[in-house]
Every structure is written in C-alpha cells, then in structure tokens.
Amino acid sequence: MNTIKTIAKNTGVLAISNIITSVLGFFLLIYLARYLGEVGYGKYSFASQ
After folding, report:
1. How many domains does the chain have?
2. What is the per-residue pLDDT for 10?
3. Residue 5: inside a domain, yes or no?
4. Is residue 17 part of a domain?
5. Which pLDDT does position 37 carry in this prediction?
6. If the chain, 49 residues long, is cut into consecutive pieces of 10 residues, what is the mean pLDDT of each piece?
7. What is the extent of the structural domain holding 43?
8. Cα–Cα nearest to 40, from 48, 32, 30
9. Inside any domain, residue 43
10. Within a domain: residue 9?
11. Which of 5, 27, 29, 40 is close enough to 36 for a disulfide, judged by CB 3.0 to 4.6 Å?
C-alpha cells in the first residue's frame, strides 16, 4: 500500500511539473516574440531549429 501511494504521489508531481513547464514555455514564447520583434524572433526561430 505504501508503494502505491508513493508511485501515485510521484506521478502527480511529475504531471504537475510538466504542465507548469509547458505553461511557462508558452508565456516565454509570447514574451520573446514581443521583445525581439518580427525580425528578431524570426532569427531566433531559425537558429533554434
């Protein structure tokens, strides 16, 4: 029973951390696009591919 609780807890923490990482990445892309402008963001996108 203890092992099942540990697995469930760790799975929940991992899922939440993945969601937070995705949301932060989304907002970072919005910030970068606004900060760098069209040309700068285009260069960034090209370089990161």
Report:
1. 1
2. 97
3. no
4. no
5. 93
6. 92 98 97 94 93
7. 25-49
8. 32
9. yes
10. no
11. 40
Q: What pTM was estimated for this model as a whole?
A: 0.69
pLDDT of residue 47: 94
Half-sphere exposure of 41 (CA within 13 A, CB side): 11
Residue the block writes with tokens 């937070």: 20
Provide the residue count of the chain: 49
Tokens encoding 49: 């591919």
Tokens of 23: 């949301």
Give me 39's structure tokens.
């040309």
CB 13 within 8 A of CB 20: no
Residue 16 · residue 24 · CB < 8 Å? no
How far is Cα 35 from Cα 46, in angstroms, rounded to an integer?
16
Residues 6+ apart with CB under 8 A from 44: 32, 36
